[in-house]
């Protein structure tokens, strides 16, 4: 067997091959990895878009069911009052009419007409439910939510009790949250005009969106403050 023409790789040749392969890998590496980086970036972007869409959908839902004239905002946050139900109250100029609400007069019982979700509304009423009448602007509403006696929203110490009466009417009774029995008269519509459309709203919580540290946080189940 003739082995004179057989020779192995020298060390220098092996080093040169390694160097050449390293150079080729350095040149081709970015091109080979680019599709994987693009896929990863696309996946992250799709996830962010889905999160943003979910947030915007929830925000749009909250705004749509917010009490009118309750949405307020600043540079980093937005706040509103959630609507549990709404309807039209029975109006009367006769003080002491337990089936109607009389502007400037203390009422602890009155009827509302339609547009309420019947038993579902009654089941959702809790100690945080508050009745709102004639909220003409944002600042006045939030001021009344904190300061008792403004005649726009029931205070936190008053419980709203609902019961079905004849026809499609529903009786609203205002009671003390302390013992659940004592009636708490409240002077709605202190200026004496009444709600132009005789509208009444029921709200159980405020809802706030806060943007901080690159995140949007939704906060609920709390009572609003003046500021």
What does this structure look like?
- The protein has three helices and twelve strands; from the N terminus they run αβββββαβαββββββ.
- It is of the alpha+beta class and 227 residues long.
Keywords:
6-stranded antiparallel beta sheet; 3 helices; 227 residues; 4-stranded antiparallel beta sheet
SSE string, helices as H and strands as E: HEEEEEHEHEEEEEE
Low-confidence spans: none
Q: How is the biggest beta sheet arranged?
A: 6 strands, antiparallel
What fraction, in percent, of the residue positions are helical? Answer: 25-40%
Oligomer: single chain
Which word captures the global form?
rod-shaped
Arrangement of strands in the largest sheet: 6-10-3-5-8-7
- Determine the strand fraction and express it as a percent band: 25-35%
Short note summarizing the structure:
The chain is of the alpha+beta class and about 230 residues long. It contains 3 helices and 12 strands.
Topology:
Layout: H1 11-64, E1 72-73, E2 77-81, E3 85-89, E4 106-107, E5 109-113, H2 118-124, E6 130-133, H3 138-146, E7 158-164, E8 169-176, E9 186-187, E10 199-203, E11 206-212, E12 215-219
Antiparallel strand pairs: 1-2, 2-11, 3-5, 3-10, 4-9, 5-8, 6-10, 7-8, 11-12
């Amino acid at each position: 067997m003739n082995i004179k023409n057989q020779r192995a790789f020298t060390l220098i040749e092996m080093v040169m091959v390694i160097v050449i392969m390293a150079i080729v890998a350095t040149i081709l590496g970015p091109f080979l990895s680019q599709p994987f980086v693009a896929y990863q970036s696309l996946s992250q972007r799709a996830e962010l878009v889905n999160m943003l869409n979910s947030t915007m959908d929830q925000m749009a839902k909250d705004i749509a069911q917010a009490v009118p004239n309750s949405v307020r905002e600043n540079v980093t946050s937005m706040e509103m009052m959630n609507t549990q139900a709404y309807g039209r109250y029975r109006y009367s100029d006769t003080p002491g009419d337990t089936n109607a609400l009389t502007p400037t007069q203390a009422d602890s019982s009155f009827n509302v007409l339609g547009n309420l979700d019947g038993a579902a509304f009654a089941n959702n009423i809790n100690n945080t439910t508050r009745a709102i009448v004639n909220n003409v602007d944002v600042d006045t509403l939030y001021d009344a939510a904190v300061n008792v006696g403004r005649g726009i929203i029931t205070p936190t110490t008053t419980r709203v009790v609902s019961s079905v009466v004849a026809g499609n009417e529903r009786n609203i009774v205002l009671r003390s949250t302390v013992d659940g029995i004592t009636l708490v008269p409240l002077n709605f519509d202190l200026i004496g005009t009444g709600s132009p459309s005789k509208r009444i709203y029921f709200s159980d919580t405020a809802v706030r969106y806060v943007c901080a540290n690159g995140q949007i946080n939704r906060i609920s189940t709390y009572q609003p403050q003046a500021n």
